[in-house]
Request: fold
Amino acid sequence: MFAVDRGRRFRQCLPLPMKTSVSVSNDDVAKVFDEIADLLEIDDANPFRVRAYRNAARTIQSLGRSLQVFVDEGRDLKSFPGIGQDLAVKIEEMLRTGRVQALDALHRKLPASLEELLRIPGMGPKRVQAMYHQLGIKNLSQLERAARSGRLRELPGFGPKLQQQILGSITAGKSKEARWSRTESIGSAGKIVEFLRAVPGVAEVVPAGSYRRGKESIGDLDVLVTATDTALVMRRFADYEDVQRVVSSGSTRSTVILRSGLQVDVRAVDRESFGAALHYFTGSKSHNIQVRRLGQKRGLKINEYGVFKGKRRIAGKTEKQVFAAVGLPWVAPELREGGGEIEAARRRDLPHLIERKDLRGDLHTHSRASDGKATIKAMALAARDLGLQYIAVTDHSKHLAVARGLDEKRLMRQLEEIDRVNEAVSGITVFKGIEVDILEDGSLDLSDTVLARLDLVIGAVHSHFQLPRRKQTERILRAMDHGCFSILAHPGGRLIGRREGYDVDMERVIRQAADRGCFLELNGQPKRLDLTDVFCRMARDAGVLVCVNSDAHSTHELGNLDHGVVQARRGWLEKNDVLNSRTTGGVKRLLKTTMHCA
Ligand code: DGT
Ligand code: CA
Ligand code: CA
Reply:
């Protein structure tokens, strides 16, 4: 799916409107670096240079605070992992001027239309590079023609299947509107809230819509404000520094497009209507319709201004009041998709959704031994700082050579290192794990004797994504049948905006997990968020415990747990449905039941 429109990132690098002061977020810098990496790759640049930009982008995205603040404090940017002299200078250039000349130069060198090719799922910079240099394909219509005529197959690695897939995506993409990744919008939302809070007379500022419901992608951002002078709010907002274009602006609502391309709707209501408006603009539409219908049965009219009996407003100041008016308890926004939450609320059977503080550990992290950035000890200390009681080190296995996956010998050495860390560090337990590749035939990439020495085994598909459904499903089921198999990593295999998941019968996988007593991961990486909300709920119904993991490749990325929890809540998960809400002892016992291959 085109869920997240990668192409959009390019637009934000067009010359910025002249502003007296440029405000550049970490995301802006990361996007520019990612874009440079993409374009360098298309331009056939040195792979190390490409990698350096990508690594820097990940580091920047995962910083807890804004780069500008670090610079203002005089912090040396080179102290961050993956940021050398050259990139530090570029970051400063970007913070100062809002742009990077190196990117402008690439824009001048390469046709702009190449960027739309990158948006097609399955089409990374490498493939665009091959098409461009070998077949001279520069834009979508040329690509479509080449795919239809079979010319694409002249390129190595472009089989008939890929050709079909490309055609399918081009056709589907034409009719689909682009959406934004929620996690990428968190920064923008936070900044807007802060800006609006500072306007005189403003009381509440809350992002509503799909953003508040925690959807992984949003069409636009809806922000609700209560204020004494709503017209002032709208006037000020039109001058907000990130605004590129004002689409419409009135005294109680305005719509703007930010420089990033994200659309923002701001609405202002008076305090008496706040709850009703918050409920209305949080949606979803289908949820709202059901609530309104319940109201109608009681002779009530419900809209964004309140709950009315005839002309009299009987509720509306808080959301709780609105729900109470139709005989319901408050329903968490993540559940408001019209998928049974109203019925559950009527039965007083709503789930007590998991919260971030319920997570006691993280069972999927990487260290420097494979493709992580930090030592095991640094990861353990950072996790302890976050209040976690345990983490598992689960580096890649040897089949994943690009990530310097561990062979048996290196893994055995790592186990000794983990023993030493556990000796040296108190207050946190480090479990011994591996993210082992599930090979094409469903066998695991490491020998049983070594796997048996571990506390847990996470199995992951990192290859052969194109297997037909039956084969892919059998492959995964077979892996789960292995005597040492604890958790299936990122079960669907999608990379949001880049690659659809592989074709697999997830219901079978969930049943298998129930039968085998193993677990499914909800991977919290923003680009994965996998299991999806729908499958979380299915896993819960099947009695399968879900493990919300960060898959952190650096200490900062332990923060991915936050994203995982939002998705888990959308999947109706309670604390007890989540493996890593258990105590260290409890989780250890449960993991042990999955490990009997020796
Ligand atoms: P999005 O932006 O596509 O990710 O999804 P939403 O849910 O944020 O939708 P949006 O931005 O069009 O509208 C925000 C909320 O406003 C929506 O969730 C429910 C409410 N809303 C908008 N239009 C209507 C409508 O025609 N009827 C009802 N009942 N509610 C509406
Ligand atoms: Ca919206
Ligand atoms: Ca909207």
About this structure: Confidence is low (pLDDT under 50) at residues 1-21.
